[in-house]
Amino acid sequence: MTYFEILIQYLQLGFSHVIPMGFDHILFIVSLFFLSSNIKTVLIQCSVFTVAHSLSLGLATAGYIMPNASIIEPLIAVSILFTAVENIVHSELNAWRIFLIFGFGLIHGMGFANALKEIGLPKNQFLSSLLSFNLGVELGQITVILAAYFLVSKWFSNKVWYKERIVYPISSIIGCIALYWTIERILFVN
């Protein structure tokens, strides 16, 4: 495989890790989206999340940290639950949210590492393939954000009933799914 082919392969792997395979990741990004449907704000949060998960993913795939799936997987579910509940409890963004998203990104990156270890990274192109994978994840996240924006927010976010009829019910469904995942992952992830 050529250098370019490897970069494309890991870009596609990163994207497909979000769409269609990353249902938990999609729910997390949608939860980020619904507290503030301002596209710029959500993209900034998404980028902070990506920087954080890139750091922990890089450290884990390089072997500097060894994430334990039985701890990381329930924490990923809790992060989704937390952001979903936050959408219901808070009506606007708090300044501390960006730090929380960074912390959640570190956790999600360790989850990515467990998945990426199964695939492996080429030793002679470790950094470039890792960056390509992360770029694919970022493109997947942006796709989710843009889909949420054009399917929902663009048309309804200025309506007085937007939070009551859209944000609260969707966040409640996401929260219920995440609660189920949390319990399931605590009980059944080895």
Describe, in short, the structure shown.
This protein has seven helices and no strands.
Structure characterization notes:
The longest helix has 31 residues, at 126-156. 41% of the residues are buried. The chain is 81% helix and 0% strand. With 190 residues, the protein is mainly α.
Total count of helical runs of at least 4 residues: 7
What is the tally of beta strands?
0
Q: What would you call the shape?
A: globular
**Main pleated sheet:** none
* Assembly annotation: single chain
Radius of gyration: 17 Å
Structural class: mainly alpha
Order of helices and strands: HHHHHHH
- Contiguous low-pLDDT stretches (5 residues minimum) are none
Distance between the terminal alpha carbons, to the nearest Å? 35 Å
Proportion of beta-strand residues: under 5%
Query: Share of helix among residues?
Result: over 70%
Instruction: Provide mean pLDDT, rounded.
Output: 89
Distinctive features:
single chain; 190 residues; mainly alpha; 81% helix
Topology:
Elements (H helix, E strand, L loop, with lengths): L2 H16 L4 H13 L3 H23 L7 H21 L7 H23 L6 H31 L5 H27 L2
